[in-house]
Amino acid sequence: MEIRFQPALLQEVIDSFVEKTEREGDPTYYKEFHEHADPIYEKFMLEDREGEFKKLYQYLFGTWGFSDIVRDSFNEYPLLKNKVGIVLVKGVLKEDQEGVDILRKWGSVEKELAREFEEKGLKGVGIKLIPRRFYDPALTRYCRHELMHISDMIDPVFGYDPDTKVGQNPGEETLILQRYRVLWSLSVDSRLVAAGKEPMLSKEDRFKEFRSWYRKIAPLQLKSVFEGLWQTSYFTHSELIEMATDTLRVMDRAVDVEGGEVPESENKVMLMPGFPCPLCRFPTYSWVEDMGSKIESYVLDFIRENHPGWDVEFGACDRCVEVYKLRADGVM
Questions:
Q1: For residue 266, what pLDDT is reported?
Q2: Is residue 8 domain-shared with residue 127, that is, in the same domain?
């Protein structure tokens, strides 16, 4: 397996690291850098210096151990190493641009090299990192976590499909994909903990993240549901999509835990923020729930007449309820 680092990333990492350590009172790396860099200015013409500095940055990046961080992360996944032909590591400017993914487009990799890997059935992996991440102790945890995602993606049993279509509108799609990410990351960290390795986030932090995306689940039930998810050794892509789409499927994972409560298995529709109103079909964040007790029966009957198959359990947005009440009263 070959690992290639973007030259611009190497330079940015070394330069910023030298500046950081000197600013913090450690001139060691500053002195070592200039021991190698100053002679380049003295011995080489302007047009030749770029190549020499490129060699210097590659040398220091390896000598100072930055390349080992990525390489050692792959060493934790020997089966993954056998399925990956090349890893491309490039720099990005913002944290929200970071990520690790299977290369679906080879980009700057030579076409012949790409063809060579593909003919052997090998994958390419792309890693995007901000430069300062390389001297952040959390990078090891980050790489370990992300590479388990990659391991899942190339595992036929997991059945990863990046083209899976979800949601009936952009708002619903965003919600489902965010929940998918939360559930998958939860699964990855639980497996890392079970293997005796440090996860990206602790179990407590994963619970907080899970809770923020499933606010409709009652607090006591939420604990039981989360514990069931955490204890599950493996989820497939389709199972994660199903749970991200349907809260009831998540609740099915609940287990008995102290201080928790297993939800009753009732076929109740969950009215989630961003999902389409069954009457107007527009995404809504303002649901009217418990309509059977809150809305007059003649208004409900009027809605049923205009929407055969609808019932109170499906809910409606507050705007539609207001409009249909006016229509039922003969105002509109």
A1: 47
A2: yes
* Same domain assignment for residues 303 and 226: no
Percent pLDDT > 70 in the chain is 92
- Domain membership of residue 142 (yes or no) is no
> Comparing C-alpha atoms, which of 210, 248, 254 is closest to residue 232?
254
Specify whether the CB–CB gap between 141 and 198 falls below 8 A: yes
Task: Report how far apart, in Å, the C-alpha atoms of 165 and of each of 17, 87, 234, 245 are.
Answer: 43, 28, 22, 11
Number of residues that make up the chain? 332
Q: Tally the domains of the chain.
A: 3
Closest CA to 188 of 207, 175, 176, 201: 201
Are 298 and 237 part of one and the same domain? no
Q: Averaged over 78-92, what is the pLDDT?
A: 89
Predicted structure pTM score:
0.73
**Whether residue 211 sits in one domain with residue 161:** yes
Q: For the chain, first and last CA: distance in Å? A: 70
Same-domain check for residues 195 and 98 = no
Assess whether pLDDT exceeds 90 at residue 259. no
Distances (CA, A) of 251 to 108, 242, 248, 286: 45, 12, 5, 23
**Can you give the residue range of the structural domain that contains 203?**
156-270
178 and 108 within one domain:
no
Averaged over 54-62, what is the pLDDT?
A: 94
pLDDT tens digit string along 290-313?
Answer: 888 889 999 999 998 888 878 887
Across all residues in the chain, what is the average pLDDT?
87
In whole angstroms, give the CA distance from residue 282 to residue 318: 12
The region that residue 28 occupies, defined by phi over 0 for left and psi between -120 and 50 for alpha, beta otherwise, is: alpha
Give yes or no: residues 118 and 48 share one domain: yes
